[in-house]
């Protein structure tokens, strides 16, 4: 076990980022075009990084498996983006956003990174407004804010219920401009299938053209993975169907450590599953909790429709248990509260798998028009999916996997443990600790891409000036290409009996049952015994029809499920070894008397970073100790 | 329109996309420049459409004189020839108007023809299953055909009442263009001709209904407060022209106008 | 929850961009009415793989109606029979037992078929690359509240910005015109104060890029009817006006410079 060095600059917390920027090495403008940077992924982090790096003068290649960069899953974020602007004058500040984020992450994140995120949040809003993001406005033309889970101030900027879409389109437009100008070369429908390391440094990537099946290599001076999270390991999640862990995992297999894989966030306000063929779950913005009240019938197995349950027979359990935050309690806390009640038989809906989110009080207080103004499109979305009118009857919600705090381990510069390889956005583990606050994912993606990477990458590239780096014809690339070709040909030639989706569904069931909202030693050990067996079956009984040439979505899926299997094993291992409850990681053995997460700061106040050893069941655990010099290490309480 | 490069077949390398916005600057008169794009051609269609709408409206109003008798209509025809006379030579203004109209017609036809070609090319492979249109109506979808029928009608109409080549030349003797009223009555007294007039004018109405509304869109005259009026205007205009024009053959056939 | 029985799907199958395609018929014996349309295709694909046949290729991703990846012409209507709804949000409760459902790819020369139901919509990216942005390099932005935007303007801009770039407008248009897509992006940026500096050059560049790939608008309104975000054709009028201005006023300004 080695201690990892996060390279945190010295000095007071508030000055670290400025001090870093003041001393980081720069690349002069004429030399920037000598450097080629490969950016993988075109979501908020990838698009903003690619656009900014190209603006600075670097040669940027952008890879996305989508048909267009605009499709990345950042687009589905609904609620908003946090920033410590204090436009409302309600006492917000960079320090408060920092503290809220640290506390929300249950003291499992790195202070310096979080503080930088809070500082940069302010610039993000300025940047996005200048780019034409149509944020919601007050009548006077000033920006409007709403409040969000885990915060007592209104610091969330939003664009109806489509904030992620509007921010992504903003970043995409900057990217499109650079593509148009020739600063960025776009490789669409191209998926990363390996990274290549030469002499301990990341030399580039191997990609597969999803239209032709062709496998090719790309060399660069730096590589940025902005490839999102791995929530789809659960099969049913709110992630897009194509979101996957492959890029991060393939980098992990080449030496990049993977941190805290067990930190997976469950979002409290999703539409419950309604039938067995369901392919994904749909999230309703958490902002709904601003005006909706969560309740279940007091009596278990109460079959009456919502409007027939009298007021005094309703249990507004979040308001009861957490009076100061009420319905805005953080995600993990609200999720578990819902799970406990549903498990006890208080669930509502035909499958008894949800809780009510009731807007009748808000409608009578604010009027239907105001509620419609705030949440109209979310209500429509609910009605389309559930077939019920939420103005007339309460919505039914239930938690679902939504975001993964874990990811590639990165230092203060967002560099992974492989020099030259960076990770940004949800793909890294950096800022959210064991639990992410609402409206902070968009903030982090854009902070990484627009403001952090452009500074830290130059620091990494400056020493390379004048040196030659391996080209795409280097034998290491040839070998990686060959391995990838064999791997994909192998999926096709297995000729077993089960489709990749079948295996994915089974994998997801194991992970959800044993490594979901609540984990136990027993369950995790069970998962760790079932997973290798299922994975073994996958390697023997997989059936992929078609060939490895031309479009073959079944084959794409096979490659992704393969990596999910390996990740799933590590996730369970990580959850098993973290013998405490913190944030979204809830081990049933470690809880307070009233069922709250019980941290063990003596043994686990650290980041667990796993090293690939060649066997997915035997990864090697490293730690990065976390020190809290500014935030007060306290028991998280939202009462 | 250039065709989008088709995705390559299996086994060939696709090139990345970059520097797509580098376009050569155009140097040509701005009207030609404007007309070079589809949006510009629609603009031309709208402007020429307005000119021709003005014509059909005043043509219809002028023809109402036939209800006041032969003298009134013939006098109106004479008046047209004497527009601005003696300031301008006789028939000069009329010829200016006529050439303007012909130019507008040619512009309208050329734009329609090139846009049709563009649109055919824009969906080289058609839908193989049946389409189920949601809002497109008969008027909007039949513009090409109603336009062609109206064009044929204009040609026939000129041959009938301007050149007289297809007018009935009976006992009254040679075709005399200035005897407008007599020419009209003689022509529309033929039931088949009258039916053709009626059908052509109904189709003209359909064409006007969509065209008059489209003008506002194509020219970008759009104001949420008045947008409803655009529909009413288009329907009203088409109705006025059609009612007026269709009344003539009916009046002649029924003997109201002799 | 109830079930639909005995659905006949007529699905367009085409092996590659230049291959000749054909409809193939499949019978779905039973499917939950809670299943989405794409989940019904998932079920079909699982069956096809089980039979050793290639799965039907179709584009899809978020399945919540926001990424714009899904497409499909369903019974001659872009995104199927439910208004303001993408294919991924269309549920089987919109159909009845015994129905025959015809599924075709978007058809437009600007959207060439890649395979089966998948088409290439890159032409939309080319239009945005031509000018669908506000030039604002990272780092130089003034404080966000220094640019007040009247609420009505922000709302109108947002209405247009809601476009998901799915291409239903092109698919539904009898002329394969992309005016609604292009005009929505223009309205989003051209209405905002931040977008004024490049308003005319942006309009000119985007309209001319659009012209290279798509047909012309003949004001049918099919685009707006098919649009899952119900974007109004009013934005097209705005584009037409700005395009004219770009040819007249922009030239004046350019000749001055």
CATH architecture group name of the largest domain in chain C: Orthogonal Bundle
Write down the overall mean pLDDT of chain B.
90
The beta-strand count of chain C equals 7
Low-confidence stretches of chain C: none
> In angstroms, what is the radius of gyration of chain C?
21 Å
Helical element count of chain B?
9
SSE series of chain B: HHHHHHHHH
Tell the overall outline of chain B: globular
Low-confidence stretches of chain B: 1-11
Q: What is the total number of structural domains of chain C?
A: 2
- Distance from first to last alpha carbon of chain B: 55 Å
Question: Biggest sheet of chain C: strands, sense, closure?
Answer: 5 strands, mixed
Q: In this structure, how is the largest beta sheet of chain B organized?
A: none
- CATH-defined fold name of the largest domain in chain C: Fumarate Reductase Iron-sulfur Protein, Chain B, domain 2
Beta percentage of chain C is: 5-15%
* Radius of gyration of chain B, whole Å: 23 Å
Structure commentary:
- The complex is a heterotrimer of chains A (639), B (258) and C (257).
- Chain A is of the alpha+beta class.
- Among the domains of chain A are: 267-400, Succinate dehydrogenase/fumarate reductase flavoprotein, catalytic domain (Flavocytochrome C3, Chain A, domain 1, Alpha-Beta Complex); 476-605, Methane Monooxygenase Hydroxylase, Chain G, domain 1 (Up-down Bundle), CATH 1.20.58.
- Chain A contains 17 helices and 20 strands.
- Chain A has a five-stranded parallel β-sheet with strand order 6-2-1-10-18. A five-stranded antiparallel β-sheet of chain A has the order 12-16-15-13-14.
- The longest helix of chain A is centred in the last third of the chain and has 25 residues, at 553-577.
- Chain A is globular, with a radius of gyration of 24 Å.
- Chain B has one domain (37-121, 140-253).
- Chain B has helices at residues 30-35, 38-63, 70-81, 92-122, 138-141, 143-161, 180-188, 191-219, 227-253.
- The N and C termini of chain B lie far apart (55 Å).
- The model of chain B is unreliable at 1-11 (pLDDT under 50).
- Chain C has 257 residues and is α+β, with helices and mostly antiparallel strands.
- Chain C is elongated and about 70 Å long.
- Chain C starts with a strand and ends with a helix.
- The model of chain C has no long low-confidence stretch (mean pLDDT 95).
- Chains in contact: A-B, A-C, B-C.
């Amino acid at each position: 076990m080695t201690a990892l060095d996060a390279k945190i600059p010295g000095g007071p917390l508030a000055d670290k980022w400025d001090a870093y920027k003041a001393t980081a090495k720069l690349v002069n403008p004429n030399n920037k075009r000598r450097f080629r940077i490969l950016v993988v992924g075109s979501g908020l982090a990838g698009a903003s990084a690619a656009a900014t790096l190209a603006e600075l003068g670097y040669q940027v290649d952008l890879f996305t498996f989508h048909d267009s960069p605009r499709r990345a899953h950042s687009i589905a974020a609904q609620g908003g983006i946090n920033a410590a602007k204090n436009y409302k004058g309600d006492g917000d500040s960079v320090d408060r956003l920092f503290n809220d984020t640290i506390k929300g992450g249950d003291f499992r994140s790195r202070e310096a990174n979080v503080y930088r995120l809070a500082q940069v949040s302010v610039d993000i809003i300025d940047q996005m407004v200048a780019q034409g993001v149509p944020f919601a406005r007050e009548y006077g033309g000033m920006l409007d804010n709403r409040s969000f889970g885990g915060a007592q101030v209104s610091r969330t900027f939003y664009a109806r219920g489509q904030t992620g879409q509007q921010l992504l389109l903003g970043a995409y437009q900057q990217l499109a401009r650079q593509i148009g100008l020739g600063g960025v070369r776009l490789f669409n429908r191209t998926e990363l299938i390996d990274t290549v390391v030469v002499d301990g440094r990341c030399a580039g990537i191997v990609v597969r053209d999803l239209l032709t099946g062709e496998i090719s290599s790309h060399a660069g001076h730096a590589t940025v993975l902005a490839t999102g999270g791995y929530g789809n390991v659960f099969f049913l999640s709110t992630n897009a169907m194509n979101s996957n862990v492959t890029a991060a995992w393939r980098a992990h297999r080449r030496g990049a450590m993977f941190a805290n894989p067990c930190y997976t966030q469950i979002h409290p306000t999703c539409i419950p599953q309604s039938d067995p063929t369901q392919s994904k779950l749909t999230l309703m913005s958490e902002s709904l909790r601003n005006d909706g009240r969560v309740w279940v019938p007091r009596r278990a197995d109460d079959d009456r429709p919502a409007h027939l349950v009298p007021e005094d027979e309703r249990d507004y359990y979040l308001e009861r248990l957490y009076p100061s935050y009420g319905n805005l309690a953080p995600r993990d806390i609200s999720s578990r509260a819902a799970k406990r009640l549903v498990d006890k038989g208080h669930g509502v809906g035909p499958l008894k798998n949800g809780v009510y989110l009731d807007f009748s009080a808000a409608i009578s207080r604010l009027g239907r028009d105001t509620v419609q103004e705030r949440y109209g499109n979310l209500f429509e979305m609910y009605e389309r999916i559930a077939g019920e009118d939420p103005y007339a009857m309460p919505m039914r919600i239930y938690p679902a996997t939504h975001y993964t705090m874990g990811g590639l381990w990165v230092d203060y510069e967002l560099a992974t443990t492989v020099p030259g390889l960076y990770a940004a956005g949800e793909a890294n583990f950096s800022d959210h600790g064991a639990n992410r606050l609402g409206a902070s994912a968009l903030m982090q993606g854009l902070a990484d891409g627009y403001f952090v990477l452009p500074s830290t990458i130059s620091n990494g590239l400056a020493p390379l000036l004048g040196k030659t780096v391996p080209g795409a014809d280097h034998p290491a690339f040839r070998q990686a290409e060959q391995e990838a070709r064999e791997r994909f040909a192998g999926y096709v030639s297995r000729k077993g009996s089960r489709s990749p989706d079948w295996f994915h569904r089974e994998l997801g069931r194991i992970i959800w049952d044993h490594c979901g909202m609540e984990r136990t030693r027993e369950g995790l050990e069970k998962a760790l015994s079932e997973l290798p067996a299922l994975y073994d079956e996958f390697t023997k009984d997989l059936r992929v029809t078609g060939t490895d040439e031309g479009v073959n979505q079944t084959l794409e899926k096979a490659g992704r499920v393969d990596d999910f299997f390996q990740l799933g094993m590590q996730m369970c291992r990580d959850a098993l070894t973290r013998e405490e409850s913190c944030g979204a990681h809830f081990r049933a053995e470690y809880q307070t008397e009233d069922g709250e997460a019980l941290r063990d700061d003596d043994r686990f106040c650290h980041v667990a970073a796993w090293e690939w050893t060649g066997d997915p069941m035997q990864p090697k655990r490293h730690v990065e100790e976390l020190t809290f010099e500014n935030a007060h290490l306290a028991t998280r309480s939202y009462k | 329109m250039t065709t989008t490069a088709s995705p390559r077949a299996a086994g060939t390398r696709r090139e990345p996309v970059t520097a797509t916005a580098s376009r050569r600057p155009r140097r040509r008169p701005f009207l030609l420049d404007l007309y070079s794009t589809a949006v510009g051609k629609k603009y031309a269609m709208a402007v020429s459409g307005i000119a021709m709408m003005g014509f059909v409206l005043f043509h219809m109003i002028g023809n109402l004189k036939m209800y006041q008798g032969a003298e009134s209509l013939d006098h109106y025809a004479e008046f047209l020839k004497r527009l601005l006379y003696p300031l301008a030579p006789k028939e000069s203004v009329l010829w200016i108007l006529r050439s303007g109209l012909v130019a507008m017609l040619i512009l309208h036809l050329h734009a329609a023809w090139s846009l049709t070609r563009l649109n055919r090319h824009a969906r080289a492979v058609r839908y193989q299953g049946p389409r189920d249109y949601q809002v497109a109506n008969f008027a909007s979808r039949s513009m090409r055909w109603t336009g062609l029928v109206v064009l044929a009608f204009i040609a026939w109409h000129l041959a009938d009442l301007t050149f007289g080549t297809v007018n009935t030349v009976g006992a009254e003797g040679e075709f005399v263009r200035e005897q407008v009223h007599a020419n009209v009555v003689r022509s529309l007294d033929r039931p088949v001709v009258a039916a053709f007039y009626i059908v052509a004018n109904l189709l003209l109405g359909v064409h006007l209904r969509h065209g008059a509304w489209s003008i506002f869109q194509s020219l970008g005259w759009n104001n949420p407060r008045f947008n409803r009026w655009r529909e009413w205007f288009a329907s009203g205009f088409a109705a006025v022209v059609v009612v007026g024009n269709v009344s003539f053959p009916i009046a002649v056939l029924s003997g109201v106008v002799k | 929850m109830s079930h639909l029985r005995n659905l006949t799907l007529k699905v367009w199958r085409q092996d590659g961009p230049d291959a000749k395609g054909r409809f193939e018929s499949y019978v779905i014996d039973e499917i939950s009415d809670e299943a989405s349309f794409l989940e019904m295709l998932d079920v079909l694909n699982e069956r096809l793989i089980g039979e050793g046949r290639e799965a039907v290729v179709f584009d899809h991703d978020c399945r919540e109606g926001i990424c714009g990846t899904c497409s499909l012409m369903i019974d001659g209507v872009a995104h199927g029979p439910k208004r303001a709804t993408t294919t991924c949000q269309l549920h089987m409760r919109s159909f009845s037992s015994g129905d025959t459902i015809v599924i075709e790819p978007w058809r437009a020369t600007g959207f060439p078929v890649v395979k089966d139901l998948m088409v290439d919509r890159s032409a939309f990216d080319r239009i945005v690359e031509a000018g669908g942005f506000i030039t604002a390099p990272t780092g130089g932005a003034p404080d966000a509240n220094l640019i007040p935007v009247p609420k009505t303007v922000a709302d109108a801009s947002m209405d247009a910005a809601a476009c998901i770039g799915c291409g239903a407008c092109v698919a539904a248009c009898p002329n394969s015109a992309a005016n609604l897509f292009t005009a929505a992006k223009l309205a989003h940026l051209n209405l905002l104060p931040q977008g004024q500096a490049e308003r005319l050059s942006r309009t000119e560049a985007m309209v001319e890029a659009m012209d290279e790939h798509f047909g012309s608008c003949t004001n049918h309104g099919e685009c707006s009817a098919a649009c899952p975000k119900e974007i109004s054709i009013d934005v097209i009028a705005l584009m037409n006006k700005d395009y004219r201005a770009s040819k007249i006023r922009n030239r004046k300004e350019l000749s001055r410079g």
